[in-house]
Write a structure and sequence with these properties.
Strand content: 35-45%
Order of helices and strands: EEEEEHEHHEEEEHEE
Distance between the termini: 28 Å
Number of strands: 12
CATH topology: Pnp Oxidase, Chain A
CATH class: Mainly Beta
Strand order of the largest sheet: 3-2-6-9-10-5-4
Shape: globular
Low-confidence stretches: none
Number of domains: 1
Mean pLDDT: 96
Helix content: 10-25%
CATH architecture: Roll
Length: about 190
């Protein structure tokens, strides 16, 4: 038997992404979002949802670009901080001891200390209720070389990304390895 919770944002998990932008004056900003995800594989793209009142919203409109920075579990405090203060009032990079690195592909900074970052060019935006859904085409993904597997691909266990449970406002780490994709379900064919 399942309990009904009604119309809520109660879907597990949501990512914890820190969005990097520059403001009109060229100052870097970092804002944590959880309303986000992959939305296309061709072109590779992500979607992030922001309220119009957010500083990052203005920055994305100005620069037509953002980065998606993935914090590790050891950086959960920094990720939380970037979501509870506004870049209008504080230099989050200076306060949290972060380094803004100018992206190679887009007009937005990525965070040097975070294990991975995606450079995104805005290719669309859509109004959905109180949010604007920004679609960012991924032009490049950068991963710290020490966090790669032997085959050269990113190792999720080494990256140790943070995930979020929205209704309980709780941060979590990813769990144990379960099975290989596109083969665990073959037994049902």
């Amino acid at each position: 038997m399942k309990k009904s919770f009604g119309a809520l944002t109660l879907i597990y998990p949501t990512p914890v992404w820190v969005i990097g932008t520059y403001d009109k004056a060229g100052r870097p900003n970092a804002a944590t979002v959880a309303w986000a995800g992959i939305c296309s594989s061709d072109p590779p793209a992500v979607a992030i949802s922001l309220r119009k009142s957010r500083y990052t919203y203005e920055n994305i409109l100005e620069r037509k670009a953002f980065t998606v920075n993935v914090p590790s579990a050891a950086q959960v405090d920094v990720a939380d901080y970037c979501g509870i203060v506004s870049g209008r009032h504080e230099d989050k990079f200076a306060r949290a001891g972060l380094t803004a690195v100018r992206s190679d592909k887009v007009d937005a900074p990525f965070i040097a200390e975070f294990p991975m970052a995606a450079e995104c060019r805005v290719i669309g935006q859509y109004e959905i209720g109180v949010h604007t859904h920004f679609i960012g085409e991924i032009l490049d993904v950068k991963v710290d070389k020490s966090l790669l597997r032997d085959d050269g691909l990113p190792d999720i266990g080494k990256i140790d990304p943070v995930i979020y449970a929205p209704e309980t406002r709780g941060y979590h780490a990813t769990g144990r390895y379960l099975a290989d994709g596109f083969s665990a379900g073959v037994k049902f064919k």
